[in-house]
Write a structure and sequence with these properties.
- The protein has 221 residues and is mainly beta.
- It has one helix at 202-206; strands spanning 18-20, 23-25, 35-38, 69-79, 82-87, 92-98, 116-119, 121-124, 130-134, 140-145, 157-161, 166-169, 174-175, 179-180, 184-192, 198-201, 209-213, 219-220.
- The protein has a 10-stranded mixed β-sheet. Strands 2, 10, 11, 13, 14 and 18 form a 6-stranded mixed β-sheet that branches.
- InterPro entries: RmlC_Cupin_sf, UAH_cupin, Ureidogly_lyase, Ureidoglycolate_lyase_dom_sf.
- Its EC number is 4.3.2.3.
- Keywords: Lyase, Purine metabolism.
- It catalyses: (S)-ureidoglycolate = urea + glyoxylate.
Length: 221
């Protein structure tokens, strides 16, 4: 399977049905299993996973987990109907999704309300966890699913974060970049330096885009 391309014209993606993802308020209880909320990123350490053994001989103790982590600014910003992400920590640039059908989405001008992100892709990192901490105190959402390569659209949730705390996710948690509720937002991103990534092209694999709500009145419960 080829690695996905992250920068492209929205119109190169087909029109597909939408699967609405439940929007859940991020609390200590609701994020259990996925990760935790973070008050202060200064001394917060992410989990680093030891390199897996290739056969029956074990990895020597104290080795295979020494790469540590990297950090930088993650920016999410809207241009017209298209949401872009930029991750300085790993030199990544991404088209995260669209607010409307990609065949109609415009970059130069906004043609649809930004009530949702139509998500085409998710990934996870087997080598380490990841911290997203807002540098701007504004709401944001993060889509996520529990570990396992049998990802399905109905397994995905979106966490609504009010901007007062960061969200840390464990290794192997399916996720995508951070979705700002407003036009743009900056985050401290801290993640494993190896940056192993396992991807799923949701549109290609399941024939749908994941509709992640960006409106507070869509929060369940």
């Amino acid at each position: 399977m080829n690695a996905p391309e992250y920068i492209f014209e929205a119109s190169t993606k087909p029109s597909l049905p939408w699967h609405e993802v439940p929007l859940i308020r991020a609390t200590e209880e609701s994020v259990k299993g996925y990760g935790c909320l973070v008050d202060d990123p200064e001394n917060f350490e992410i989990e680093i996973v030891q390199w897996p053994a290739q056969g029956w001989r074990p990895i020597d103790q104290g080795t295979g987990d020494e790469a540590g982590w990297v950090e930088g600014i993650f920016r999410g910003h809207w241009r017209g109907d298209v949401l872009y992400g930029e991750n300085e920590a790993v030199n990544g640039n991404y088209v995260l999704g669209w607010s409307t059908d990609p065949q109609k989405a415009q970059v130069e001008t906004q043609t649809a309300p930004r009530d949702q992100v139509l998500l085409w892709h998710m990934n996870y990192h087997p080598d380490g966890g990841q911290l997203f901490y807002p540098l701007d105190n504004k709401p944001f959402i993060i889509p996520a699913a529990l570990p396992g390569d049998d990802l399905k659209p109905e397994k995905v949730v979106a966490f609504w974060c009010d901007g007062s705390k960061g969200l840390y996710i464990h290794p192997n948690i399916w996720h995508e970049g951070i979705f700002p509720v407003e036009d743009s937002q900056r985050f401290l991103d801290r993640q494993g330096k190896v940056h192993a990534r396992v991807s799923c092209d949701v549109g290609q694999e399941f024939g749908v885009y994941l509709s992640c709500p960006l409106r507070a009145d869509k929060i369940q419960g």
